Amino acid sequence: PFWAGAFAIALIVGSYATETFRGAFLGVDPGIIEAARALGLSSLHTFFYIRVPQMWRLALPSVGNHMLSLMKDTALISVIGVEEILYVAEMATAVTLKPFTMYMIVAVIYLGITTVITLVMMALEKHSNRHLAGAR
Predict the structure, then answer these.
(1) Which parts of the chain fold into alpha helices (H)?
(2) Residue 98: DSSP 8-state
(3) N vs C: which end of the chain shows fewer Cβ within 10 Å?
(4) 85 in Cβ contact with 28 (< 8 Å)
(5) Are 82 and 5 in contact (CB under 8 A)?
(6) Distances (CA, A) of 37 to 22, 26, 52, 58
(7) pLDDT band at 131; cut points 50, 70, 90
């Protein structure tokens, strides 16, 4: 069950991430690419030094959303029997007969994980947009 769940989630997240990066690739200003070519940069250098940093800056907010979605989607694979946080809480509830306590612990764990992911993504966005502060 684990590999089936992992494969299903990988397909879902992979398809969304592919579309995110495709949109970011198309979102890079063609004038910047033209300027790089005018300066004599090769296609490879243009891609890695011009296009990828611009793509990263454009795709970063969506990548953060995909990470949060992936973290929440892991609860869905508990339906097929994969032991994850929610599944363990259900098993503990059957033993302790304290569902509120168990689900509150799970909620705090999920809140902690999402807070950490959000803070890391905010720091990455701030770092990737630091050069734009002077342009405004």
Answers:
(1) 2-27, 30-38, 43-45, 52-73, 85-96, 99-128
(2) -
(3) C
(4) no
(5) yes
(6) 21, 17, 15, 21
(7) confident
CA angle (123 as vertex; 120, 124 as ends), nearest 5 = 85
Kindly report the pTM of this predicted structure.
0.77
Whole-number Å distance between alpha carbons of 108 and 103: 9
Q: What is the pLDDT of residues 31-49, one digit of tens each?
A: 999 999 999 999 999 999 9
- Burial track 116-125 (b if 16+ CB lie within 10 A, e otherwise): ebeeebeebe
| Architecture of the domain spanning 2-135 | Orthogonal Bundle (1.10)
- pLDDT for 107-128, tens place per residue? 999 999 999 999 999 999 999 8
- H or E element, residue 49: none
